[in-house]
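Let us work through a complete example step by step.
Step 1: write down the sequence.
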Amino acid sequence: MHGDTALLHNSTLPSEPLPSEPLPSEPLPSEPLPDTLVQVLGGLSLTCGAGTVAVPPGSRRLLAYLALHPAGVDRRSAAGVLWPTVTEGRAAGNLRSALWRLQQVGSPLVRTDRSALCLVDDVRVDLRAMDAWAGRVLAGTATGADLAVDPGAIADVELLPGWYDDWVLATGARLRLRLLHALDALSRLLRLAGRPREAVEAVHVAVLAEPLRESGQRALIEAHQAAGDWVAARRQYDVFRGLLRREIGVEPSPELTAVATGPRQPLAIPAGRPPRETAATGY
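Step 2: predict the structure and record it as tokens.
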């Protein structure tokens, strides 16, 4: 779901020199440009209006940190996280420097006060849109557009590739797990909508990404069954069972075993419609 690895910033970077210009403590008194977007999926970038804007090197990590914290952050805490190897006073100075540089991009991005920082309300972040999609799918309130996403692109999403700060890795791990669960849920929603083949595709990519997750395996088995492919469903169970035995020495849960090996359930046929022809094989 393209890496932006030209600048790999980590917590051991030396402290940054302060600019010679005076540093404002508040954002510039102007409104953000339309369609201001911060992207952190696949790499860091900033788009203002119709064009991409270069993020000042000394401000890239601050912009990414704020994009990953939609509720805002404490100034002192942010300075300590972003510049942990320097004194508190120097870290505070580096933060003011990074803020000042961000205000030079032509559109105010950060709202500040004496103790807190956050991106201004009109700045969009691709991570938040992805997280909102996952939330709707997991809650069962997905729209038609939500169901039409490319599951392969969802599974390939990577947060700030090449960045190894703890705060990036922690958020990336949480995002990955949330998206895998969302793909499981997407498969169930597609199955309930009478689109079993799309349900198979949706969860298959999640299983490929994390083959030891039983929830994903169950969703894939049930999608195969809904598509009438009972052979594939049983084969998937057997493959998963062998994988569990080899990798961690356990068996699938009794619930999954019952789903995969229980008697075949007849398809529910609406009144007045002839049964659809299906394969004669199955378990």
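Step 3: interpret the result. The mean pLDDT is 85.
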